[in-house]
Specification:
A 9-stranded mixed beta sheet has the order 1-4-3-2-5-6-7-8-9, with helices on both faces. The longest helix is centred in the middle third of the chain and has 23 residues. The protein has 8 helices and 9 strands. It is globular and about 50 Å long. Helix 4 runs parallel beside helix 5, helix 4 crosses helix 8 and helix 5 packs across helix 8. By secondary structure, the protein is of the alpha/beta class. It has a single domain, classed as 3-Layer(aba) Sandwich (Rossmann fold), CATH 3.40.50.720.
Length: 310
C-alpha cells in the first residue's frame, strides 16, 4: 500500500489537488512537483530523496523493505520538516511487484512531474560473483537495473504525460559494456562486473530510445553517471577504494533532474553535470531496436513503438 504523511490542515492532497500546469517547456518549481525516486532507502537514492524533500517536493520513496522504508521516511521528515513523503514497497527482482507498484501510484496520483530511477544491484563482491536470477528467471542485474525501470517507466508514462513538462532521469554508470544479444542473460562465462556494466549500458540505450518516442509529449528523458566510486555500500562491497562522496552524486542527479537549464533537453548522457559520450553501442540504432523489442517481450508489454501502457 502506498502511504503518505499528511498534515491535518493540508487539503486532501493525494496528488490530485493543486496541480498547476507548467508554462510551455518550463518545469514547475521543485516545491510544486510530485517526484518518485526508486531505491530511496540507502546510499545515493536516500540522499537525493532528502535533497528533494528539502526543496519541498512531494516525494514518493521506493524501497523493497517496508520497515527500512518507514524508518527512512521518518528520518527524512525529521531532517527536512517535509511531511509530503509517501512510500511504496516493491522488489525490483519481481516484475509482478513492479506492476503492482505502478498500479498503486496511478491509483493515488493523477500526475507525476519527475521520475528518478536509482534502484539497482551492483557488481557484487569481486572476484567470483555468482550468477543469480530474478524471480522471473532473468539474470538478476539485467532484470533489476534495466528491465524493472523499463517496465515501471512505461507503466507510468500516462502520469508523466498529464504534467508536461515532466522529466525521467535514469541513474546509470560510466562503467558500460556492449550487450551480447546472443547471450544477454550471460549463461556462458558469467562475471558480475560484466553483468553490471551491460545492464548500465542497457539503461543508457533505453534512455535514448524513450527520449525519441516521447519527444513530442512534453517528457524529457536523460541519464546520468553521478560520480565515480561513490562512498556507498554498493561500491564498497565491490571495490577496495572510493573516489567520490555521496554529496558529489547528489549534486549531479539534482542538476539533471531539476536544473532549469535543462528544460527541453532530452536524450542525453551526462557524466556528472557535463554531457558526455556513452559506449558506442548506445548510438547503434539497430542495437537499440533489438534491446527495446527484447525488453518489451521479457516484461510482457505490447511490441509497438511508443506504447502507451495502460
Amino acid at each position: 500500500m502506498l502511504i503518505a504523511m499528511r498534515e491535518r490542515e493540508e487539503s486532501p492532497s493525494d496528488g490530485r489537488a493543486e496541480r498547476r500546469p507548467g508554462k510551455e517547456g518550463i518545469m514547475r518549481p521543485v516545491s510544486q512537483q510530485t517526484v518518485l525516486i526508486t531505491g530511496a532507502t540507502s546510499g545515493l537514492g536516500r540522499a537525493v530523496a532528502r535533497a528533494l524533500a528539502d526543496e519541498g517536493a512531494r516525494v514518493i520513496l521506493h524501497g523493497r523493505d517496508r520497515r527500512k522504508l518507514q524508518a527512512v521516511r521518518q528520518e527524512i521528515h525529521a531532517e527536512s520538516g517535509n511531511r509530503r513523503l509517501e512510500m511504496v514497497v516493491a522488489d525490483f527482482a519481481s516484475l509482478a511487484e513492479v506492476r503492482r507498484m505502478a498500479e498503486e501510484i496511478r491509483g493515488a496520483h493523477s500526475g507525476l512531474d519527475l521520475l528518478i530511477t536509482d534502484a539497482g544491484v551492483g557488481p557484487g563482491r569481486m572476484p567470483g560473483t555468482r550468477r543469480e536470477l530474478s524471480r522471473d528467471g532473468y539474470e538478476l542485474r539485467f532484470a533489476v537495473n534495466h528491465l524493472a525501470p523499463f517496465l515501471l517507466t512505461e507503466l507510468l508514462l500516462p502520469l508523466l504525460r498529464e504534467t508536461p513538462p515532466s522529466r525521467v532521469v535514469n541513474v546509470t554508470s560510466a562503467g558500460q559494456e556492449a550487450i551480447d544479444f546472443g547471450d544477454v542473460m550471460l549463461e556462458r562465462g558469467y562475471d558480475g562486473k560484466r553483468a553490471y556494466h551491460q545492464s548500465k549500458l542497457a539503461q543508457v540505450m533505453f534512455t535514448f530510445d524513450l527520449a525519441e518516442r516521447v519527444r513530442d509529449e512534453g517528457i524529457t528523458v536523460n541519464c546520468v553517471h553521478p560520480a565515480s566510486l561513490l562512498n556507498t555500500k554498493m561500491v564498497t562491497e565491490s571495490y577496495d577504494r572510493v573516489l567520490s562522496s555521496i554529496e558529489d552524486g547528489v549534486r549531479s542527479v539534482m542538476v539533471v533532474a531539476t536544473s532549469p537549464d535543462l528544460d527541453g533537453i532530452t536524450g542525453r548522457y551526462f557524466d556528472q553535470t557535463r554531457e558526455a559520450r556513452a559506449h558506442r553501442q548506445a548510438y547503434d540504432p539497430a542495437a537499440r531496436e533489438m534491446l527495446w523489442h527484447l525488453s518489451e517481450r521479457l516484461v510482457g508489454l505490447p511490441s509497438e513503438p511508443g506504447v502507451k501502457a495502460g
